[in-house]
Design brief:
Number of strands: 5
Helix content: 10-25%
Shape: globular
Number of helices: 3
Mean pLDDT: 80
Largest sheet: 5 strands, antiparallel
Radius of gyration: 28 Å
CATH class of one domain: Alpha Beta
CATH topology of one domain: Nuclear Transport Factor 2, Chain: A
Strand content: 25-35%
């Protein structure tokens, strides 16, 4: 009799476990998307394959390396979600819209040579943007950032003599620059 009661108890418990069999199992969270990496230097869409390392000596803020530092700061601010602060480094003062991005990163290359024109100095800095859109799609764009500053001409202000991002030229799908 005891074994029959024990068997009945086990069947009753087993039935309790099966009560929700018709119900759907809770959805498992989607696995995290694989990390997105930039193309290797020299590869299509990557930074130029510069074999000569940059000098690690201190640089003047008005030098080409000073311009590249502005680009690094700009993209670090964007990566941190601080688009309004990044906008202060642009000549147009416009903050890019980052709402489409789940992840946003940049690689900044070595600056080119400075070139002068009409009292201004220009320099181009190569950049690769990579990350992930909120849709889950990978983001890969490459191009250059063009910076401008006013030469040390009479009447120019300290603000005018600082590097500002004049424009960003990126290849690939449109998005924040």
């Amino acid at each position: 009799m005891r074994s029959a009661a024990a068997l009945a108890s086990l069947l009753l418990l087993a039935g309790c476990d099966r009560a929700g069999e018709g119900a759907r199992a809770p959805a498992r969270p989607a696995p995290p998307a694989a990390a997105v990496a930039p193309p290797a230097p020299g590869a299509p869409g990557g930074l130029p394959d510069e074999r000569t390392p940059l000098a690690e000596a201190p640089f003047a803020p008005t030098s080409a390396q000073g311009a590249a530092n502005v680009v690094q700061t700009y993209y670090a601010l964007l990566e941190a979600g601080r688009a309004a602060d990044a906008a202060k480094l642009r000549a147009d003062g416009e903050a890019p819209d980052l709402s489409a991005y789940a992840e946003y990163h940049a690689q900044v290359g070595a600056p080119g040579r400075t070139e002068g024109a009409a009292g201004s100095v220009y320099v181009e800095v190569p950049v690769v943007i990579y990350g992930r859109l909120r849709t889950g799609a990978a983001l890969h764009r490459s191009g250059k950032v063009v910076l401008r500053r006013v030469n040390d001409v009479p009447g120019s202000t300290a603000a005018q003599r600082r590097w500002r991002i004049e424009r960003i030229e990126l290849a690939g799908p449109s998005g924040a620059g």
